[in-house]
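EI: anyone free to look at a 251-residue chain?
SC: sure, send it
EI:
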Amino acid sequence: MGGGGQGIPRAANHHCHGGSNGSAQTPSPPTVVNKVYRVGRKIGSGSFGSLYDGVDVRDGREVAIKLELASTKHPQLIYEAKIIRLLQGGVGVPVCYHYGDEGEWHVMVIDRLGHSLEDLFNLCKRNFSVETVLHLGIQMLDRIEYIHKHHCIHRDIKPDNFLVGRGENANVVYLIDFGLAKKFRDHSGRHIVYKEGKNLTGTARYASLATHLGTHACIHAYSHAYIHAHIPVYMLAHIEMRIHKLVCIYT
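SC: here you go
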């Protein structure tokens, strides 16, 4: 689930079953968050921790609850909460209802969303109509453009991280999982310094060539990656001109 998407639940990765390695037992997750969000069943996991469905007991609103151990060596949820709060108000950005600590856990409560585009593509036997391709592709580009306008790059763009909404928002495409996102301008407004020799960030299958070569957070490279990798091949003929326009604007 690539960092905690809310699509069709997938089986958790299984590791060796050769017995205990002597490490401390993971504490039980909270049953209630911030006194109002009841934690339900686990629906996914990733490098960040675990994702649960939940409900706001005040009004019955369904939510998604991300949990990450506070003792995690390299926490992502704290940073993700900062980024998603920066982006609040944008179309296709999940609402963040709460972030904080609950016992031994970092907790973030966000919108409960529907299937990922990867899941929907599989449900449709990997065949979308041209109309669907255009509807989804334009929204995907709008989401990317929005976070770029806020001087951020996502760094893990892939079909698993685009989800559709639910109910009256079922036709809205959401971009999720900002744990690897990065601001490409510093506090003074200057672009971050070009670097080489960086470890690969994101999902190798969808990463740009520049990322594989170890260069650091170049927005031009990320924009080209939407053409050559992140946007599925079946979308290219219809939205390539739109992507080139974005490249010209932000480079």
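EI: Confidence is low (pLDDT under 50) at residues 8-22, 224-231.
SC: 👍
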